[in-house]
Amino acid sequence: MFLSTDLPHVRRPPEPDDYLLYPTKKVYDGRGSEGQQKRATRAYPKKRPSPQAVHRWWYRQLQAAGLVRRDVTHGLNMHLARHTFATELRRVAGIDAASQALGHADLNTTLGIYGHRDQSDLEVAMEAYASWLEQQREDSIVPPEADSS
Q: Computed from CA positions of residues 6, 12, 18, 22, in that sequence, does the dihedral angle turn out positive or negative?
């Protein structure tokens, strides 16, 4: 599915071979009415962004979301964030939801990466079991007046 709005600095809808993130460059664009230099932004949506550009974009998004301070540019990479999101989503909504959110075509891909269990999964399962067991005990207690038949 493509974006439904025009690409910034390109003034056209995206095409299938455009990159979501693409390089831009400030260029001289003549003189203004008072003789000042005008600048324009040229965009290259068919050109792959450099790894450094993607890294800078990622940390700008984290800063805008308030997840890191302005001077932080390392420590929370995209892969770690994706993995954390998928693991938490699997715990809350199940492996099917995680697979769909990650865009995996095959559930086995998701199972192979996120199907593992960890200590917190066991703790949650044991708490659920203890609650169920307590409910069973409460349900099996017969009030004295019900026993005198």
A: negative
